[in-house]
Each structure stands twice: as structure tokens, then as C-alpha cells.
Amino acid sequence: MQQPFDIEIGNINYAIFPEGNDTYVVFKEGKEYVQIQKDTAEQWIKLDSETGIPKFDFDEEANQIGKLITAYHENPPIDEDDDEEE
User: Fold this and answer.
1) Spatial distance between the Cα atoms of 11 and 52, rounded to a whole number of angstroms
2) What is the pLDDT of residues 54-72, one digit of tens each?
3) Where are the domains positioned within the chain?
């Protein structure tokens, strides 16, 4: 399973917690904010917080977060602690 990671949009910090199946729980400034899921390569959708059913309303912030999640997975940061000892 993927580990949580952080992203920033402007001066806002988001903590991203992968749930599997391209679904993520997003914390904004330390508080649970939204759950999003990848719909298409360019579209991300919010999930209803109570039912988990997708809301198909367009949400620019969810799309921005999703694009950064995609970019994070395409170029994961190098963890210096993972260096192999010889």
C-alpha cells in the first residue's frame, strides 16, 4: 500500500492518504477535507462524505489536487533513508 504524502497548492498544505483504486482522502491544513477519486486522466471527482458515492459536479480544487497526486506518482521524491548500505 502506498504511504501518505504531502502536496501544496499556493500556500495551502494538503496531506494525501491513498485508499486504493485511485481513491484518496485529503486533509487540508490538518483537517479531513474531502475524498477524491480519479475519473479520467484529466478529471477527478469528489465522493460524498457519508455515502462514498461520486459527486459528478466539477470541482477545480479537486482537479488541481488530483493533478498533483498524478505528478507525485510520476516523479516520487527520493527518500534518502532508503539508501542501501553495503
Assistant:
1) 29
2) 998 889 999 999 999 999 9
3) 5-75
